[in-house]
Amino acid sequence: MAQYEGTRVYDRIGHGQDSITTLGNIVAYKDSYKAQDYVGAYEPWKAVFTMAPCAEVSTYAYGAMILANVLVKEQDMTKKKAYFNELMNLYDTRLKHMDALNSLRRQTSVPQRVTSWPVRLSTMLTTVRAWPTVIRWTRPTPCSARV
User: Fold this and answer.
1) What is the pLDDT of residues 91-114, one digit of tens each?
2) For residue range 45-66, what is the model confidence (pLDDT) as tens digits?
3) Separation between Cα atoms, residue 23 and residue 4, nearest integer Å
4) Using CA atoms, how far apart are residues 11 and 59, in angstroms rounded to an integer?
5) Helices (H) and strands (E) in the chain — how many of each?
């Protein structure tokens, strides 16, 4: 099995036939997921999850949605319980491989918290402009207007 943890693609998905199978399964479950065929996406996703748990970070996000939708549509309580246990196993496995998965993320230029004081006003304004959300300052209401 191809359970390699690394930052290079061939380390994460294996070598030889394992890597070809894993890449084919990744494409298959993503296509089925986009078509909202969650039952059809389950088998290829399960193969990727068991053979290469560190192949992609999105394996865990797609897997949670696939398992949740399959779980809701299932009528048999024993299968439903098995899918639920598999969903919980998915979260546990994600926590176990968290360091390897975080090494796959692209580094973004998010401003770090300023720790050295005093800070120049121009530095503070550039940091505020770089925030992803817009901060809106509102005038406080007088005490009589508050409920």
Assistant:
1) 998 888 887 777 766 656 555 555
2) 999 999 888 888 889 999 999 9
3) 14
4) 16
5) 7, 0
For residue 140, cis peptide bond before it (omega within 30 degrees of 0): no
* The pair of three-digit structure tokens given for residue 21, joined into one six-digit string: 């199978």
Contact criterion met (CB below 8 Å) for 54 and 100: yes
Nearest to 22 by CA among 59, 60, 55: 55
Quick one: tokens of 67?
Answer: 């398992």
Alpha helices in 35-76 (DSSP H): 38-51, 58-73
The whole-model pTM stands at: 0.63
* Alpha-carbon 118 to chain mean position: 38
Residue with tokens 């088998």: 43
Counted residue by residue, the chain has a size of 147
Burial 42-80 (b: 16+ CB within 10 A, else e): bebbbbbbebbbbbbeebbebbeebbebbbeebeeeeee
Token pair recorded at residue 122 = 């121009």
Contacts of residue 24, Cβ cutoff 8 Å, sequence gap at least 6: 44
